[in-house]
Amino acid sequence: MFRPLELAIALRFVRSREAGLFVSFVTWASLIGVSLGVAALITILSVMNGFEAEARERLLSLSGHATLFRPDGAAFDGAALADRARAFPGVVGAAPVVEQQALVVHGDDMAPATLRGVDPAREESVTAMSAVLGGAHLEDLSVGEDALFLGRALAFQLHVVPGETVTVMVPSVAEDGSLEPHLRTFQVIGLFEAGLQEHDSTLAIGSLANVAAFARTGGATAVRLRYGDLYAAPAGARRIAAERPGFAVRDWTEENAGYFRAVRLEKTMMTLILLLVVAVAAFNIVAMLVMVVRAKRTDIAILRTLGLSPGGIVRVFLGQGLLIGWTGSLLGVGLGTLLATHVDTVAAFIQQAFGFEIFDSNVYYITRIPSHIEAVDVAMIGGIALVLTLAATIYPARRAARVHPAEALRYE
Question: Is 251 exposed, middle or buried (0-12, 13-18, 19+ CB in 10 A)?
């Protein structure tokens, strides 16, 4: 523990100009470097958290948090299973679905697609379909009418607009075991844009009854679930599957495992790279304190002769280094939190000042810079910065304690 006298001496050394202009410059450079490194790390991780949350929301906008299905791909009574699943704790929505790989043709254009059949009455409890339909309604998918919603990117590939028709082809197995195609003409009644290439360029959505009849599946092939707590879905869905023999489950972390693994790796590498900036700034404190020890040899000798123990000398220089490093860390936490909170304002100022658009709406789905501050990230970054600055003070402080008063005062 630091004693008041030791802290007072440390503060006096920090404010002293006797060590020279260069030492003062290194002191300020260390403080500013730690502050900027911590602020940059908090800001960048907050922006990456924001992009991750935005992408996760878009990934799940047209899919559930978990999916129940038969491993053999057999169809089943999806409505009955959805009703039973809805009764489990944490489940806020359940809807049957059928999916079939298909080829969509319009004139001379064709594109592979996933033909998805949904129950218009239940789908809203699981996905945000209405939010991406651009004014259309799921209820327009009436049973008995061959109608489809196409992803905007898929419609662009096919050069089709609402009101026109497309031909959909799905494969099926004939009685002799050979493959034969089934064709049906559907009318495009609307386009959707989820803001994710995976959905907008591959999905064609119709009613469950129509798609199941056309694909000859005999019913739903999966039931998708939505939970009140996104992170409760993996464990909750497995409990449901455990009570339904013959069913398997796949949750959102498995369906998008590659994406989220890449995001975690990118965040980890970015954290390590920016921590090097903090480390370089923190260990500038080593050079600064070594120079202070050399300049203050006489003062150290006098303090020793007045009764200050070697441990007291160590604590004096530890206190000096920590005052600089921890002040820089706390300033960096404050600056980083402020920047992360107002990142949209900063981005708008940069765009206006330099006359360019960071995210061109003609190129990117996400046209703003999202930011989400995680308290755990801020605490981790602040804690690591404090530890690095503490480590940087140990060697100079121990070196100061080894100064011999007689040697230091010999020529004074």
Answer: buried
